[in-house]
Amino acid sequence: MLVKVIIDKRSGVCGGVNRAIKMVEKKLDENCKDIYINGELLHNRLEMERLIDKGLKVSNDINTLENSTLFIRTHGVGKSSIDDAKIKGNNVIDATCPKVRRSQDITYQLYKERYQIIIVGKSNHPEVIGLLGYCNNEAKIVMDEKDFTKIDFNKKSAILTQTTIAQKHFFSLVESLKKKMPNLHVADTLCSFVENREEELVSFAKENNVIVFIGGRNSSNTKVLFQKILSFNPRAYLIENVNDIEKSWFVSNDIVGVSGSASTPMWQIEEVKLVIEEMTSDL
User: Fold this and answer.
1) Which of 2, 3, 106, 165 has its CA 20 to 30 A from that of 89?
2) Which region, left, alpha or beta, applies to residue 136 given φ > 0 means left and ψ of -120 to 50 means alpha?
């Protein structure tokens, strides 16, 4: 009997990424010149290559751009970066994920209210760097309890998080901090898509013999979701593209589930399904 390959019906890019891709493609279809984005629109090399082939240009230093069309990627940037780009004559189109935009607004409001702001996240993650731009770079960035040394426990404080951090990890740190800071204000800025996907992927991991999960290895969302899958199915494999697939992963009669991160488009998931079916046709 052949290997059966099933696509996770709930996979595909998240709403924020899908919105940004459509915005960029619309502008590219207008044949406008000099369309830039401030870094990767999403953590997916193949999808970025597709957009670049259509004419999108990537700028890692938007301060050098003048009189161009500039997309702000889904992770967002600080407000001053947008203002500076506009001063230089750029048409700035903000493709920041609405959920990240909400985090930015919350950060700015907490800053105005003179809270000591604590952000759970990676200090070098573009979303976190963008959030710092809404609090004069004064937030304390923590990723685990050893980072608590940065915090003044006597100050009025509020905590929020990078949207793609694992829910369990965020609330574990909140619980630890509340022992030292009982009046800590908690702003839940977790992405509901990521939260729901974790639950959905647990079911998907249990339903199939093998899981092939597609996502960028530099993506926080990919790492969180894949670790969740792996904890329920040891025969789970993380790939970035079809070249990473190995025939030795499969045996006859396997039911293989194919899914992806919030930055993995459906066309890539379908491509992986076809390759696995062809690769295992003689098992």
Assistant:
1) 106
2) left
